[in-house]
Design a protein that fits this description.
Blueprint: H1 2-6, H2 8-30, H3 36-65, H4 78-103, H5 105-114, H6 116-119, H7 124-135, H8 154-180, H9 183-186, H10 197-231, H11 233-246, H12 254-271, H13 275-291
Helix pairs in contact: 2-3, 3-7, 4-5, 4-7, 7-10, 8-12, 8-13, 10-11, 10-12, 10-13, 11-12, 12-13
């Protein structure tokens, strides 16, 4: 009972914020002056926010009920989180195209079976789902375990992080240019349609702020650290980089994503901190976003 009373102010603030969000959504849905595209975008991001808060709060409640220190986010096995964050939305995205392929396989060929123009153009909703699910995950490998060793001063680490992000972006764009220049690969993709204005700002914030932190917390602070002991430093870095790149589901960006994952794993190991990888990933995604949203990793 005392614990419930202690957390009452937090629950009250959460209830007030929820009520305000519901009133705002009601106004957006009922406002005839707003374009339909704006309404759909607002509903989509409200759903993503509710999913993030709901999963995280469920983890907080379960840990509190077990008598543990309450923590935000669910604790899941790595394979279950990968299936939830990457597998489920991909299957739902491709189900309509698979249905068409099964009914008329001669019309589309293998590219129709892959769907989404060979999965080379990316999907903003797929990316947003991944970021939200990963952000609502509570790592079982504590981040503090890789941040206890003293390294370079903080200002040097920040500079090193940004330089690493810039270097990885330059190398990745060079590799991407070599691949895209080959006509047989370039022809499998299509120019990414521009994001609607209602999506561009929220998507940019997720791509630059939320996704790098969520992905690094899982891929580098969790899997890379967990697999370093059985696979060794370079084995774990290679395996996590390959998985990270493959689960982007964009063949044209496999090598850039692989190089990014490999570089971030190594900087995490050598600095014994997570935030350098997060900062490098933020700069990488920001530069990618300036080129085209479908290249964000």
């Amino acid at each position: 009972m005392k614990r419930a009373v202690r957390h009452f102010p937090v629950l009250l603030i959460a209830a007030v914020l929820l009520a305000m969000m519901l009133l705002l959504l009601r106004w957006v849905v009922l406002a005839d002056s707003l374009p339909t595209q704006t309404r759909l975008g607002a509903l989509a991001f409200a759903a993503a926010l509710c999913l993030l808060v709901g999963i995280g709060s469920l983890g907080w409640l379960l840990s509190w009920r077990r008598g543990e220190t309450p923590h935000f986010g669910m604790t899941l096995p790595a394979w279950a989180l990968i299936l939830l964050a990457y597998g489920l939305p991909l299957v739902l995205l491709l189900l309509p195209e698979w249905a068409v392929f099964l009914s008329r396989p001669a019309d589309g060929g293998w590219q129709s079976l892959l769907g989404a123009a060979g999965l080379s153009v990316g999907q903003p909703w797929l990316f947003l789902w991944q970021a939200v699910v990963l952000a609502s995950y509570h790592p079982t490998h504590p981040v503090a375990a890789i941040s206890s060793k003293a390294t370079l001063p903080r200002n040097w680490l920040v500079a090193l992080s940004l330089l690493t992000g810039l270097g990885l972006w330059l190398v990745s764009m060079y590799v991407f240019g070599l691949i895209a220049a080959q006509s047989f690969l370039h022809s499998t993709g299509a120019p990414a349609p521009p994001l609607p204005p209602v999506l561009s700002i929220p998507f940019g914030l997720v791509a630059v702020l939320l996704a790098p932190w969520a992905e690094e917390s899982f891929w580098r602070a969790e899997l890379f650290q967990r697999w370093t002991k059985p696979l060794g430093l370079y084995g774990s870095a290679l395996v996590t980089a390959v998985l990270f790149a493959a689960l982007q589901f964009r063949p044209l960006l496999f090598l850039p994503a692989f190089l990014l994952g490999l570089g971030l794993a190594l900087i995490t190991h050598h600095t014994q901190r997570l935030y350098p990888a997060v900062l490098a990933h933020m700069l990488f995604n920001a530069l990618m976003l300036l080129l085209s949203w479908n290249r964000v990793l």
